[in-house]
Amino acid sequence: MINSEQKLKFSPLHRLQWEEAQQKYVILYPEGMVELNQSSAEILKLCDGNHTLPELVAELEAKFATSGLTTDISNFLTVALQNGWIQYA
Amino acid sequence: MAGSNTLNITPPRWLLAELSYKCPLQCPYCSNPLDYAKYPQELTTDEWKRVLAEARKMGAVQLGFSGGEPLTRPDLIELVAYARELGYYSNLITSGYGLSEQKIIELKQAGLDHIQVSIQASSQALSDHLAGTESYAHKQQVAQWVKKHGYPMVLCVVIHRQNIHQMADILAMADSLGADYLELANTQYYGWAHINRDALLPTREQFAEAEQIAQAFKEKVAGRMKIYYVVPDYYEDRPKACMNGWGTTFLTIAPDGTALPCHSARELPGLDCPNVKDFSVQQIWHESKAFNFFRGTEWMQEPCRSCDEKHKDFGGCRCQAFLFNGDAASTDPVCSKSAERGKIDAVIASARDAALAAEEKPLVFRNSRNSKLF
Ligand code: SF4
Ligand code: SF4
To answer: What is the pLDDT of residues B307-348, one digit of tens each?
Structure first.
């Protein structure tokens, strides 16, 4: 579960990068790479040390003119936290 | 160059730049070719830059600077900076020998993403013996600096019969050094490891015990340290999916500019591996005979040809097939479906006899004097 009070940031031990050849965002780390779909990349880009989970949800819901994203985003961030891609700021 | 074929060719993702065969260490399991002393030429800085740029343009993103010892190249910082500019995620694969704190800082500023330090064993005496050079104390220091300067710390220990009894201590050492990743690489028997196999291959019991210790530890440090465990394929009944498929993902460039589909491919006959001095990376990847040789499944023989697992392991390792069967297109003898599996079992038995013998065979260390014998 993600703590809604705390801001999230991307791990300094990983790198999030746009790959022109693959036309997608990837996470790079020692000897490995994860390819991201569009929505995962959008979520991770907001893990910049300035957003908590609710803030991040609000921003994405506004951006994509939709609602009810909390569960999906929270689930994805839980996985991201477990994998060490993000941290609490 | 041979004509291009109609296969759907995926672009390289991983570029291994073997900058130099020079190395101050003499590990008896080194994967460099036995006769590396025959290839003293090295690409110039500009040639390396061209290779980096061409491979990056095709889609390579993970970059390993390796060797030998990449720190022997005086232009390493310049190459690291250029790689960063191109957008590579760069890894320095080093013995740590001669690496100063100042250099670690400069490499970071140039944009290096991580440093993988190899340690030979958990005790000074054994580590220095295996490296053939006094280096253990400095490696420990290097590991601490790597951590201190904000790199993810990847510790690599090659496992074999001379150090497998230290598994518990090796894990404790990695933990106390604060490693973020620990690579426990069971020795793969090519190059120098191949000639030292009787002295390096652990027994089945030793493997089982070490693996159990490593598994238990993995659970203990979950979330804190990631462990990559390279399996000892002789004790499996299916081969490893070598290189994730020939010419699909990995590109190795040897110090003299020879492009290899796998870092041991230099040992395979008839490939005519091309050189980046003569062709662009694009031409090499798409059109060369070497990179097309074992692409896809057309080249396979039985039992692989009609096997429903051929897309999983691609018939195993070509170098291993050649070493055991004298035919690089044959089934990897590790596979229990191979008629040659008995050869692997014979090697296991031979190493076991050597382990139980009163006197161990001496190790052949990797150095230029020994290399000139091959
Ligand atoms: S395995 Fe040992 S000898 Fe071979 S390149 Fe690496 S550090 Fe040098
Ligand atoms: S027969 Fe060939 S393809 Fe089938 S499992 Fe064995 S090595 Fe793999």
So the answer is: 999 999 999 999 999 999 999 999 999 999 999 999 999 999
Can you read off the two tokens belonging to residue A27?
Answer: 């996470």
Asked if B57's CB is within 8 angstroms of A28's CB, the reply is: no
Chain B interface, mutation test: which of A27, A31, A36, most B Cβ atoms within 10 Å? Answer: A31
Which chain A residues in 13-42 lie under 8 Å from chain B, judged by CB atoms? Answer: 13, 15, 17, 19, 21-22, 26, 28-33
Percent of chain B with pLDDT over 90: 65
Query: What average pLDDT does the segment A1-11 reach?
Result: 91
**Min CA distance, B87 vs chain A (Å)?**
8
The CATH topology of domain A8-84 is: Arc Repressor Mutant, subunit A (1.10.10)
Whether B3 shows a pLDDT value over 50: the answer reads no
ipTM score: 0.85
| Domain map (residue ranges) of chain A | 8-84
A59 or B129, higher pLDDT: A59
